[in-house]
């Protein structure tokens, strides 16, 4: 069962979802290590991401 839902939105309107081309994408995250890795990657992403994390469980 996922523990968090992570949603990333590009503040500059660039594609985040590579399938639909949308500027927003969401993913379920199952472990703290994965969440930490994704948050660190978002900090360094050139699309200037706004990241929201929702606790699911």
Question: Topology of this structure?
Answer:
Blueprint: E1 4-10, E2 24-29, H1 32-43, E3 49-55
Antiparallel strand pairs: 1-2, 1-3
Class by alpha and beta content = alpha+beta
Most strands sheet? 3 strands, antiparallel
Query: What's the tally of helices?
Result: 1
- Strand content is 35-45%
Using DSSP, what is the number of strands? 3
Order of helices and strands: EEHE
Strand order of the largest sheet: 2-1-3
Q: Give the terminus-to-terminus CA distance.
A: 8 Å
Categorize the overall geometry. globular
Give the averaged pLDDT, no decimals.
Answer: 97
Q: In percent, how helical is the residue content?
A: 10-25%
Low-confidence stretches: none
Radius of gyration: 11 Å
Structure characteristics:
57 residues, alpha+beta, three-stranded antiparallel sheet, 35% strand, globular
Write structural notes for this entry.
The chain is of the alpha+beta class. About 20% of the residues lie in helices and about 35% in strands. It is built from one helix and three strands; from the N terminus they run E-E-H-E. It has one helix at about 30-45, and strands spanning about 5-10, 25-30, 50-55. The chain has a three-stranded antiparallel beta sheet with strand order 2-1-3, with helices on one face. The protein is globular and about 30 Å long. The chain starts with a strand and ends with a strand. The mean pLDDT is about 95.
């Amino acid at each position: 069962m996922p523990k968090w839902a992570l949603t990333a939105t590009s503040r500059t309107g660039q594609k985040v979802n590579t399938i639909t081309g949308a500027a927003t994408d969401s993913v379920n995250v199952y472990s703290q290590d994965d969440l930490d890795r994704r948050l660190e990657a978002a900090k360094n992403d050139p699309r200037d991401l706004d990241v929201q994390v929702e606790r699911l469980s």
